[in-house]
Model the fold of this input.
Amino acid sequence: MAVDHEVRGEVVVIRLAPPPEPGAPTRRAVATALAAAEANRGVRAIVLLADEAACLDLDEGGPGGHAASLAALALAIENARKPVVAALHGRAVGPWFELALACHDRIAAPGCELGLDEVRLGGLPSAGGTQRLPRLVGVEPALNMILSALPVSSEAMMTLPRQALLCRLASSPDTLVDEALARALELAASAAFRRTCDLPCRHPMREAYFQFARNMTRPRPQPTPAALLAIDAVEAATGSSFALGLAEEQRLAAQLIGTPAWRALHHAARAERLAAALPDMPADMPRRSIAAVAVIGAGLPGEDIAATFRDAGVPVTPVDLQQLCAAPQPADLARADLVIEAVPEDAGAREALFRHLGELVQAGTILAVTTPALDLDAVAALTRRPQDVVGLHFSSPARRTRLLEVVRGRDTAPDVIAPLLTLARRLRKTAVFSSGGGDGISARLLEHYGRQVNFLLARGTSPQQLDRALEAFGFGIGPCRVSADEPGLRGTAARTVMGPQPRPAPDEELVDRLLFALVNEGARMLEEGSVARASDIDLVCVCGHGFPAHRGGPMFHADEVGLHTVLQAMRRFQCHPADDAAYWEPAPLLARLAAGGQTFHPQPRA
Done:
C-alpha cells in the first residue's frame, strides 16, 4: 500500500510509504484516511507522515488534472475539523511539502530538507504552494525559495525571523513521530489551531519589490517562463484573497503543464528516480558499508576524485603508486572499504597493480576501476576476487559534474552495488548503472559524439558555427570549445590537416548529426542489455555531458521529434557521398520502434 494509517491513542497517523502508487490512488487513499479519522469520535487529532522515498507522482495527468486533485486534497487537510500536524524528515519537497503547508502545524527532524522544486522542473506549485508559503515564512524568503527551487534545511528555517512554518525541531529523527503526536494533542486540547489560508500576506513595498524581482530574473537565460510566472503567483498572494490567489496560481501553472520544456524537465527528474531503483537487490540483503576510501594515483585525475570525497566529508587517503610498490601492505589500503584506481595511462602499471591489489586489502573491500577503456572482467580476474570489482567512472572534472557511472562486471556481487548508490548520494552525485563490463555508457556516447564533431570539421564546418548551433540548442558550451578537456572529443583540429574548402551546412543538420549518433548508439546499448532504460542514457548526458536538461536528453529528444523523423535523417546521412553509410545504419531497436510508431520511453499513465 502507498498509504497506511494506524490509531495511536487519540491520534491517527496517516503515513505515505514506498513504493508509491501513481498519484491519484495515493491522493484518494490519503483523503479516505483523513475522512475516516474525522468521523472517528475516539480520534482527537491527526499526524501526516511521509517516508523519504514516498512522494506523490508528478507525472500523472494532463493540464489541470493533477493540480486540481492535489489542491483539493490540500484544502481538505486545511479545512479538517481536527488538527492535522505534519511530521517532516529526509527530503520534504514538491507536492508532499505543499500538503504539509496546508496542515495546521509542522514539526521537522534535524537535517530535514524543505522546499518547492517545481520551477526547476519548468512548472509552478499548483496546490497552493505559492499562496501558503509566503503566509508562513514571509514574502521575500518564500519567493527566494520558490525561484531557487533549492531545499532549505530545517535548522536554517528555524532561524528565519517570525517564521510560522515549523513549531520546533524534533530532538532526533527517532523521536519525530512521538513529538508530532504530542503537538497534535496540544492543538486539540487548546482548540487554537489556525488554517494557513487565514494568515495575513502583505509586503510593505509590494509593487516596487515585485518589479525588482522581475528585473533581476529577466536577464538570466530561461528555458521556460516558470520563474517569471512564479513571481506573478506570489504577488497574487499579497494582493487578494486566498481563494483568488489560489485560482491565479492554478491558471498560471496550467500555462506551463504539458509544454515541451515541462515534459523534458519532468522526464529528467523521473529518470533520476528510476536510476536509483535497484530491482534485483533483495531488501533483506546484507549491505557493505563505505566509511573510508583510498585513491591510488597521484596525478590530476586521482587528486580530482580524492577532492570530491573530501568535499563531501568522506575520509579519503591518496596513495601514490610508487609508495604502493615500496610498501607491501600500506595501512591506508588495509583500512579502506573502497579502493579506487586512478592510475595514469600506463597499462603495465595498472595490470601489476590489480595483480597484487586483491592481496593488499581486507576481505569485502570494493575495488573500483575508473578507466573506461579497460576490460573490466579481465581486470577483475587479475585480482582473484572478481566479485569485489566494479567500474566507477567519474565524469570530468569530478568535483564539478553530477554523474557517477557504476559499471557492473560479469561477476560483480549484488551487495557491491547498493552501497555505491548510497555513496553517490553522499557525494551529491547521480548514480547511473550499466552492465556487461564494457566501456560504460558515457565513454561510448562520447566516442560517437566526437566522431561526428571531427567529421563535420573535416567536411568544412567552422568550429564557430558548430559551437553556435549546439549552444543555440541549449548546450552551455559548444564541443569545439571543450574539446581539449574531453578525451572523446580530442582531435577536432582535423579540418586544418585535411584542409577542404568550407561547405556550409544548416545548423539544424549539425545538431541532428551529433544527437542522432548518440540516439543510434543508445539504441544499440539498450538492445544488448548493457543499459536498463533509455532514461539512463538521457541522465548520463544531462548530468555528465552538459546536455540541456530542458531538452530531456538525446533519447527523449528523439521521441519528441519522432523516431520516424530520426530514421529519415539517418537515411539522408547514409546517402551523403563523404559519409560512412554503414555507420548510419539504424540500430535494429530504433528501426523496429520507428516502424511501429513507438517511443523509447513508455508514456506516463494519465
Observations:
- The longest helix spans residues 507-528.
- The chain has 26 helices and 16 strands.
- Residues 74 and 99 are 5 Å apart (CA to CA).
- The domain at 443-529+531-595 is CATH 1.10.1040.50 (N-(1-d-carboxylethyl)-l-norvaline Dehydrogenase; domain 2).
